[in-house]
Design brief:
38% of the residues lie in helices and 18% in strands. The protein is an alpha/beta fold and 314 residues long. Bound molecules: uridine-5'-diphosphate (UDP).
Length: 314
């Protein structure tokens, strides 16, 4: 049985990856320090013989006994308010954490896939974003702790590939949504759903004309699974190219939740908030034969079902 280590296992994406690898018949070791993860996301796996949980901060030396075939590094605070609250941990997990896991991969002769991000493109001057765009990042702005940690992560991963011949994969993840997103993580989807269900104001930042492209989590997991098993070591964008403004998005959530008390309010736009974002997924299509399948109407409906179970209407 192939063994896979998934860091950030109790997080939103990490927990869905655990489910997928269990379903595919792997032995899964889930690792997390729970600073933003939620153990409830993986509790259903605890009774399984082929699942183990290690409570550990990957910024410290990582020890895993025995054979290891694959490592997926998904540990990191990932929402803008989280990395504002935890700037040092964010920098450490992307740099020291990645270094530790690359070292572990090298010692086990394992293949490692690193979770990178559309944030490496910063506030992009090229649209849509292709993998060969170098980005427009403010290194000392509030998002710099995340963006630069992820850029360093890509750099050290490529260095291990070229210098040590390590088998590496880099996925650049664009905005993803679905069940198990943390209600209070500050990102736009959990914010809008919880506000709409509670009958509060949906906090649109700025005028709401900034754009994002939202990918349903099952599609993302499929892309990551294919990338891991491919023989391609250059970065690959995985996301849904369907782009909308934040204002349109607020209206879609309002229409779906249909709570007469919910409405739109305006809050200031955060510093360095990217104005537009849309993945060019030509590479993922050509190399992985991958494209998203779940459209936003379907994905939002499934996500709404989840938020109904974790948010109480006031
Ligand atoms: N946003 C918003 N209201 C919120 C939270 C976010 O209008 O309550 C906006 C935010 O300014 C950004 C977009 O929604 O333009 C996506 O923000 P998120 O924090 O989800 O992730 P990002 O894509 O910025 O990393």
């Amino acid at each position: 049985m192939k063994k896979v280590l998934i860091t950030g296992a109790a997080g939103f994406i990490g927990s869905h990856l655990c489910d997928r690898f269990i379903k595919e018949g792997y032995h899964v070791i889930g690792m997390d320090n729970l600073i933003t993860g939620n153990i409830a996301n993986i509790e259903h796996l605890f009774p399984l013989k082929n699942f183990e949980y290690y409570h550990h901060d990957v910024s410290k030396f990582v020890h895993v006994p025995g054979q290891l075939d694959y490592i997926l590094h998904f540990a990191s605070p990932a929402s803008p308010i989280d990395y504002l609250k935890m700037p040092i941990q964010t920098l450490k997990v992307g740099s020291l954490g990645t270094h530790n896991l690359l070292g572990l991969a090298k010692s086990k002769n394992a293949r490692i896939l690193i979770a990178s991000t559309s944030e490496v493109y910063g506030d992009p001057l090229v649209h849509p974003q292709q993998e060969d765009y170098w980005g427009n990042v403010n290194p000392i702005g509030p998002r710099g702790v995340y963006d630069e940690a992820k850029r360093f992560q890509e750099a050290i991963t490529m260095a291990y590939h070229t210098f040590h011949g390590l088998e590496t994969r880099i996925v650049r993840i664009f905005n993803t949504y679905g069940p198990r997103m943390r209600v209070e993580d500050g990102r736009v989807l959990p914010a809008f759903f919880s506000q709409a269900i509670r009958g509060e104001g949906l906090t649109v930042f700025g005028e709401g004309n900034q754009t994002r492209s939202f990918c349903y989590v099952d599609d993302l997991v499929e892309g990551i699974y294919r990338l891991l098993l491919s023989d391609y070591h250059m970065p690959v964008n995985v996301g849904n190219p369907s782009e909308i403004t934040i204002m349109q998005f607020a209206h879609e959530v309002l229409a779906l939740v249909n709570n007469p008390k919910a409405h739109i309010i305006y809050n200031p736009l955060p510093v360095d908030d990217p104005k537009q974002r849309q993945p060019d997924i030509t590479r993922a299509k050509n190399i992985l034969g991958w494209a998203p399948k779940v459209d936003r109407a379907e994905g939002l409906q499934r996500t709404y079902e989840y938020f109904k179970t974790v948010v109480t209407p006031s």
